[in-house]
Amino acid sequence: MSLGLTDVTLTYPDGETRLTALDRVTLDVPKGSLTAVVGPSGSGKSSLLAVAATLITPDSGTVTIDGTPTSGLSRGELTDLRRHRIGIVFQQPNLLPSLTAAEQLQVMARIDGRSPARARTRALELLDAVGLAHRARRRPHQLSGGQRQRVNIARALMNDPTVLLVDEPTSALDHERGAAVVELITRLTRQRATATVMVTHDRTHLTAADRTVEVRDGRLRRTAPIRTAPTG
């Protein structure tokens, strides 16, 4: 198991009371598998993703990343954990307009202290993996929406994470481009053995997932059996 949430509860202040965002949630995501998270707006999907990313500390319960329980870790230790073991694909790519596709990725590696040469080699490898080797020198305004999202995915993989968290990757894309992005996420999950969680409103792409969980009122209401990930 690369990602585990055990009996996780998260609440927020709401006037004189507290609002429950996650209610005793337990979820295990094995390596090389894709779990899709669905549910209505306000159901707790974003909170689940934020807790899994260690961006928010739950009131109770345990979050485990690649065998490491996160409770008790310092802020610096959590930052280091996110930097080396967690990749996050945000809903909007938020690419820097002045940087090329390759440079968007290289920035991530430079933050981690890699040499420029190693960073460029890794960036070009990942752009090739997402089908954008021929667009490495293009800036965001020269890329389509689907291509920008592919750069976003490649950037999340730059530091070789074991956990990949994806937030609404198809929300700004048409059906065809959205399907291509989900297929890419699925393929990379298998190839790179990441434990991937994808939050989505688009149920048309759920057949790509190994498992689908539905969040309602902060609880996991339904879990479809996980399929065995193909090998080879």
TrEMBL record:
<dbReference type="GO" id="GO:0005886">
    <property type="term" value="C:plasma membrane"/>
</dbReference>
<dbReference type="InterPro" id="IPR003593">
    <property type="entry name" value="AAA+_ATPase"/>
</dbReference>
<dbReference type="GO" id="GO:0016887">
    <property type="term" value="F:ATP hydrolysis activity"/>
</dbReference>
<keyword id="KW-0813">Transport</keyword>
<keyword id="KW-0547">Nucleotide-binding</keyword>
<feature type="domain" description="ABC transporter">
    <location>
        <begin position="3"/>
        <end position="231"/>
    </location>
</feature>
<keyword id="KW-0067">ATP-binding</keyword>
<dbReference type="InterPro" id="IPR003439">
    <property type="entry name" value="ABC_transporter-like_ATP-bd"/>
</dbReference>
<dbReference type="GO" id="GO:0022857">
    <property type="term" value="F:transmembrane transporter activity"/>
</dbReference>
<protein>
    <submittedName>
        <fullName>ABC transporter ATP-binding protein</fullName>
    </submittedName>
</protein>
<dbReference type="InterPro" id="IPR015854">
    <property type="entry name" value="ABC_transpr_LolD-like"/>
</dbReference>
<dbReference type="InterPro" id="IPR017871">
    <property type="entry name" value="ABC_transporter-like_CS"/>
</dbReference>
<dbReference type="GO" id="GO:0005524">
    <property type="term" value="F:ATP binding"/>
</dbReference>
<dbReference type="Pfam" id="PF00005">
    <property type="entry name" value="ABC_tran"/>
</dbReference>
<dbReference type="InterPro" id="IPR017911">
    <property type="entry name" value="MacB-like_ATP-bd"/>
</dbReference>
<dbReference type="InterPro" id="IPR027417">
    <property type="entry name" value="P-loop_NTPase"/>
</dbReference>
